[in-house]
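Hey,
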Amino acid sequence: MTHEHWMQFALTEAEKALAKGEVPIGAVVVMENRLIGRGHNLVETLQDATAHAEMLAITAAAGTATSWRLEGATLYVTVEPCPMCSGALLLSRISGLIYGAEDARFGACGSASNVIDTNPFGPPVQMVTGIKRNECQALLQEFFKKLRQK
C-alpha cells in the first residue's frame, strides 16, 4: 500500500472532526500493512487539551497491539504533530511519521520546532512530509473560514 492510500484514512478521520466542529486533523497508525489505530481531534468535544488525533490514534494502536511499544508502526497524520504528539510518537517507539500539511505555529517536526530530530529513545524516526498536502490544507482552510464567519 502507498502513503497516499493510508493518508486517505487519516483524511477521513479529519472529516469526522470537521463534522463535529473540531479542528480537522485525523490520524491513523499502520503496522505490518494493517490499520491498528485511528483518531481525530476531540479537544472541544471532550474538553480535553490532550485529545489530539495523534494521541487518540496512538492509544487505540497500543490497545490493538496490546503493547505501548509500537516499533515498526507508522503514524499517518493530516497535519504536522505538535510537541505533545511528537513526544508521544517518540515514547511509543513509532518508527515512521507521514504527514500532509505543515504547521508553522505548533509543528514540532521541523516547522516551529523539531522534537523528532532530538529522539533520545531509539533509532531515528523515518519521516515523509507533504502527502496529500493540498487536501489536508483544504480541510483546515474550510474550518477556519467558517470559524471567522461566526
